[in-house]
Specification:
The chain is built from two helices and eleven strands; from the N terminus they run αββββββββαβββ. A hairpin with a 4-residue loop joins β6 and β7. It is globular. The termini are far apart. About 35% of the residues are buried.
Length: about 230
């Protein structure tokens, strides 16, 4: 699933459909799944509904002046819980102001090791509390991933977890806007110390006829012959 979505696919072919994994993100539920089946989907749907209620019921002041979510490309890193390998993903997230002034609707699309995804539904409150659900439209067709956590609208980052409908789950190791990463890279380069540039001026003097210097004479730097 997408950037934030597919957090569990290994290069050896393991992905979030490989579900011999204890759900660490929902330890109170105690999932131990051996097969992908309808029961998993029912549990997943319940988790989606729970995430929706948690975000909807969370308290947040209706202060729109300080909320400027970044709509654009985000990059993230997640871990395959089976292999422990790290994988990169990208997700284009778009925030649309909610007509009822409760926050922002979330839409977009992404790609990762499991395939291409699209965000089917999602919501973010003014304080950054958010959830969204992605569905694969290529690769592992049928894979769905729920992401929930908190956006930092000032730093354009997200901290949270993902949960697949195979009931595999895990945290996002990093999740930030690509534009912010480019700015940080440029800032680092601009702060690098610059080497001094030494310039020389060729002048003529009594050595102008010396064959060692041809017709140009010795080279001087800051008035000193070298």
């Amino acid at each position: 699933a997408a950037v934030g979505a597919t957090a569990a696919a290994s290069a050896a072919g393991g992905n979030r459909y490989n579900n011999n994994y204890y759900n660490a993100a929902e330890p109170q539920r105690g999932y131990m799944n051996n097969n992908y089946n309808g029961n998993n989907q029912n549990d997943f749907d319940q988790c989606v509904q729970q995430a929706q209620r948690e975000v909807q019921n969370s308290f947040t002041p209706m202060n729109q002046t300080n909320c400027q979510p970044y709509s654009g490309q985000y990059t993230t890193v997640f871990v395959d819980p089976e292999s422990g390998k790290h994988h990169n993903a990208s997700l284009c997230i778009f925030f649309t102001p909610d007509p009822q002034r409760r926050g922002f609707r979330i839409s977009g699309q992404g790609s990762d090791i499991d395939g291409n995804t699209m965000i089917e539904d999602g919501f973010a409150k003014y304080d950054g509390t958010a959830w969204w659900i992605e569905r694969n439209i290529s690769g592992d067709i049928g894979l769905q991933v729920l992401s929930r956590g908190n956006f930092n609208f000032y730093q354009h980052t997200f901290e949270g977890t993902w949960l697949a409908n195979s009931m595999l789950s895990g945290p996002y190791l990093s999740f930030s806007a690509a534009a912010m990463q480019n700015q940080q890279s440029s800032s680092i380069q601009s702060n690098e110390p610059k080497l001094p540039v030494v310039t020389g001026v060729v002048v003529q003097d009594g050595y102008s006829n010396n064959t060692q210097y041809g017709n140009n004479g010795p080279v001087t730097v800051m008035g000193q012959a070298i």
